[in-house]
Amino acid sequence: MSTDISYTPEEVAKILRISKFTVYELIKRGELAAYHIGRKVRVEGADIESYKQKSKGVSPLPSLLDPPALSERLNHTTTLDESLVICGQDIVLDILTRYLEKQFPQVHFLRRYIGSIDGLMALYRGLANVVTAHLWDSDTNEYNTPYVRRLMPGHQTCVINLVYRMEGFYVAKGNPKGIITWGDLTKPEVRFVNRERGSGARVLLDEQLRLSGIIRNDILGYGDEEMTHLAIASKVARGEADVGLGIEKVAMQFINLDFIPLHKERYDLVIRLEDLERPHFQALISILKSPSFRNEVMGIGGYDISRMGEILAKT
After folding, report:
1. Where are the transmembrane segments (predicted)?
2. Distance set, CA 130 to CA 2, 231, 239 (Å)
3. Is the pTM of this model over 0.85?
């Protein structure tokens, strides 16, 4: 990356491996310097480097670009005065992090906004402490556990339910293209917008296409990727795509979108089994079971919390 040229928020997002909405939030909070050319936002390469340097200290969005440094810092033996990395993109994780920060003000709780497979790989490599997953396995019709076993070979883990969410299609109000099934994605006039590789939504789509015998090249826009459910919904709402895949909660934020429910998914937390009895993780489970946290999540809407905090598997 050159430090003498400027970058768009989308380019910054790719450089830092975060969502473009997180980039805008960093700019809004003054953590990342930016300037405007008309209505467009630009970030200098030098300011990106400056932000990355500051992130090597205390930052809500640590970089995974320097695995040895971060691995050495965490080293699977997090104590009460160190950092704890939480990976995942759902707003419920931001609320959970806030509750943890209140209980452990001396701990740096660091958030990484990455997908399910990347999160599990970070846990395997020692670059994360808590990760989320919503990965459907079509062979077993089971969520997450088969993937945890494959991606964490030789490592014992604990799978804890966070919420259940409804996954489905975002379409324009009134569903003018009549998009109801996976097969409708192949209609020649339908423009699709996809999630990035490694995300739970992308895995669900690819598994369903395989089961249905649908060739991905027959889907217009299959290669058009966005990093978040919000970005997908926004693109459909703006008319830049006809359909995208995401969770119902996000669709509720757009008055000009309809949601076509397809699949109820299990959204879990995954930690190392050796961490389960440590104070941070016992506090995490207690928070998940607390009336205040559960009521706050229920108040948001769009989530099933019936098994929140329940240990579903130890692998």
Report:
1. none
2. 33, 24, 36
3. no
Q: Per CATH, the architecture of 166-265 is what?
A: 3-Layer(aba) Sandwich (3.40)
Q: Exposure string (b/e) for 262-279, b if CB count within 10 Å is 16 or more?
A: beebbbbbbbbeebbebe
Q: Is 45 helix (H, G, I), strand (E, B) or coil?
A: helix
Q: Distance of CA 178 to CAs 153, 170, 174, 247, Å?
A: 43, 12, 9, 19
- In this structure, whether the domain defined by 59-162+266-314 belongs to CATH 3.90.550.10 is answered with no
Compute the C-alpha angle 173/179/182, nearest 5°: 140
Domain segments of the chain: what residues?
1-55, 59-162+266-314, 166-265
SS3 of residue 262 by DSSP: strand
pLDDT in tens, 195-250: 999 899 999 999 999 999 999 999 999 999 998 999 999 999 999 999 999 999 99
- Residue range 46-77, pLDDT digits in tens: 888 888 777 654 344 343 334 444 344 434 44
Count other C-beta atoms under 10 Å from residue 291's C-beta. 7
Q: Is 260 helix (H, G, I), strand (E, B) or coil?
A: strand
Residue type for position 123? L
- Which residues, in sequence order, are CB contacts of 124 under 8 Å at separation 6+? 151, 152, 155
Residue 60 in contact with residue 85, Cβ under 8 Å?
A: no
CA gap 100, 126 in Å, rounded: 21
Query: How many CB atoms sit inside 10 A of residue 167's CB?
Result: 22
Find all residues with CB under 8 Å of 37, minimum gap 6, and list them.
none
Read off the pLDDT of residues 230-239 as tens digits, 9 standing for 90 and up.
Answer: 999 999 999 9
